[in-house]
Write a structure and sequence with these properties.
homodimer; about 200 residues; alpha/beta; Helicase, Ruva Protein, domain 3; four-stranded parallel β-sheet; about 45% helix; about 10% strand; extended
């Protein structure tokens, strides 16, 4: 490991090396790069990071991260305002948006029900979801939660709260073999569920 | 590529992705990490980077980067003050320090003579080196410059300026086969020079 005569370099390296996926060698290369570039380069970087952390807020409707009080998805006139996709956190929103397959709205719960970890329903944005569904002419909610006990519990809990709405369609992401995968590499639970949830050939 | 509803995230990602060795996927992971951590995490990072870029200066003796007017190597009482290792830039100082094999002082030229790129001797810290050698009781200077035309030209130019100092020993890093390398992978120039510069067996 390179030892540094400069405390400034050492401090900067230590902070950079705390970032995910960056070791001390990469951190050193980044420090050299910053020193080689104009001071404005470092200034642009640090101000973008500071603004990100200090100015980001949560959309008051869907609780996705947002630059403003209402996020750009909730504010958009291009989206189908009758469908809500329910996700655990804002990362899931980004991932689903990236598929380009969903044109409705989102609702970010901020976690999944996990009594062992002391995450009870009142700590999540579940009540806010119920209110949106009741007040906003929603015809379908899609659970895009992880395939775990917590995900299933959360979906079950929310479904129970919504059962008085007779016209509401409640769906969940399809589970099954990933596209392009081979049978021999599938785990038993996924394969088992795929058999149970088999679909008509050609559908 | 993931598209972002948030301009703050997009700006931060763009700036992070400009760093060497970091692509957009890594930049995204870093952004998620910053958002997950306490604001103080981002603050520590940005302030370390800002301080690095704004407060770093050059040692007024050896022109190495330094936190203060005299760098810690020049200020140290543990170093051999009669030997100067001449290098192109501060990165070379770090690399040589890392070997733990050199206990003398350094002199950072700030580049190599390259007339085609308009880098003439007066643009480098050569005059400052001559003065140090003349005034500071230096007994040896070691050229640790790259094995290129520019490196050789620079060493030759400095040697000529120092030839009036009869007691000064002028040396250069040994060139030859890297330790642990095999003959068949050595390039011809290195192998050719290794033959010319052969040393007594066992030395």
């Amino acid at each position: 490991m390179i030892s540094f005569s400069s405390k400034l370099i050492e401090d900067a390296m230590n902070e950079i090396a705390k970032l995910p996926g960056i070791g001390r060698k990469s951190a050193f290369r980044i420090v050299l790069h910053l020193l080689k570039q104009e001071p404005s380069f470092t200034h642009n970087l640090t101000s973008a990071l500071s603004r990100l952390r200090n100015e980001i807020c949560y959309c008051s409707r869907c609780f996705n991260i947002s630059d403003e009080e209402i996020c750009s998805i909730c504010a958009s006139t291009q989206r189908d305002r009758s469908v809500i996709c329910v996700v655990e956190n804002f990362k899931d929103v980004l991932i689903i948006e990236n598929t380009g397959q969903f044109k409705g709205l989102y609702h970010v719960l901020g976690g999944l029900i996990a009594p062992i970890e002391n995450i009870t329903p009142d700590k999540l944005k579940i009540q806010e979801l119920i209110q949106r569904v009741e007040n906003e002419n929603i015809t379908e909610i899609i659970f895009a939660l992880s395939a775990s006990i917590e995900g299933d519990t959360t979906a079950f809990y929310i479904t129970k709260q919504l059962k008085h709405l007779k016209n509401l369609k409640i769906t969940s992401l399809a589970r099954g073999l990933p596209i392009g995968s081979e049978l021999e590499y599938a785990d038993e639970i996924t394969l088992g569920r795929s058999i149970q949830a088999r679909v008509a050939y050609g559908s």
